[in-house]
What we know:
3 domains, globular, binds zinc ion, 15 helices, 462 residues, alpha/beta, binds adenosine monophosphate, Rossmann fold, single chain
Amino acid sequence: MELLLYNTMSRRKEVFGPLYPPNVGLYTCGPTVYNYAHIGNLRTYVFTDILKRVLTYNGFEVKHVMNITDVGHLTGDRDMGEDKLEKGARKEGKSAWEIAELYTRAFKKNIERLNILEPTIWCKATDAIEDQIALIELLEEKGYTYPTSDGIYFNTAMFKDYTKLSHQDIEALQEGARVEKNPEKRNATDFALWKYSPRNVKRQMEWESPWGVGFPGWHIECSAMSMKFLRNMLDIHCGGTDHIDVHHTNEIAQSEAATGKKFFNFWMHGAFLIIAGGKKMAKSEGNFLTLDAVLAAHRIDPLAYRFATFQTHYRKPMEYSEEAITAAQNGLLHLRNQVRTLMDSAAPTQPDAAFQEKFLQAINNDLNMPQAMAVVQDLLKSDLAPEIKLAAVFDFDRVLGLNLEKAGAGQSLPEEIEALAAERRRARKKKQWALSDQLRDRIQALGYVVQDMPQGMKVFKP
Ligand code: AMP
Ligand code: ZN
């Protein structure tokens, strides 16, 4: 069956095919590690994880590269302001390197908790300075660059079709340039490839270069590292929709100017997680929630957040609310309970071909997860035999990533309930029946059902 993916470049769904089947090169713009990732950022990474799993489900072999932006991303748009890492370091009284390490570790923990598969290659911008310098040199040789007092800039007027991804009105952008604070830029859309360290200030992260001591601009890292690690397997490049106008537009301009060849074939963008009132959740706005904060506030399984993101198509804004997160937790527990009941009576055999077809139709239609979840529920409600349902649901979980095979182990219970259940198991082993009854009442008072089965105790959310 054809896999249809929406390509921001053409603004329509296209049949996906890689350059060198069955291999697919996938590049995901990674986090800027000056703060914790928020659940908006993580929505984007769940979307790219689903994309990767859908590609794999379709039989492709995915080589996935994700960068870590640990230098060069400035606080202001269009190369104004301070480096986010250096600013964050000052604020926290740590070095920029320590900040990067700390938040990279926290990010990796987040993605593990959300069952997001690790990329084939992680790469840090600071580990690829030479590659970035080489790319800038190539652009310089080809005449696309010019110097200003604060760095080396890319002349966007020289690149035909600069707005082919964003479809921005270039005239309006030039008009906006009049109020811009950098009069040395030739065009409003020009951007820094290399920035000099400020005079009289020693930056923590800086390198020698043919143009002077400084650091690379943010966009050049993704061009240099995607080409370095994927070489000519430039199939799909992803990020959030905020990357369309500037970051990805600039990546395309500098990469295609340097190589004279088309950069990636598919550009895919996840819509924002928004908060009530429609505002984007953003690190820079300070209106954000981390995964840990959400888990602590609602005592939910981390995968409930993954489940929550499936309720909205990735190209539509998703509004965060406490009700939505609670509903997702209940939905996940219900699903696990359904699977657990099946596991009590059967072992998986062969999935049902008709349901597999329906599921594939949903995911291959530009990753339609709300539809895919409806297929899962239809399957569970159907009158197919438990062993077939179970086989199908486990097969679909290769895409869902909800760890459904572990449902039988009661994995989804909150820690507090797990602890009470364990205590009750111990009490029953010691034949302390009064204590066992008390513990059952406590578990039930917290909204869970306790059932004593011949094979042991079952605790679940009704
Ligand atoms: P950053 O760490 O700011 O570089 O962003 C990491 C990723 O999260 C990028 O792909 C952004 O486009 C994406 N992103 C940022 N804010 C949101 C949001 N509110 N909802 C969804 N994705 C977002
Ligand atoms: Zn990027």
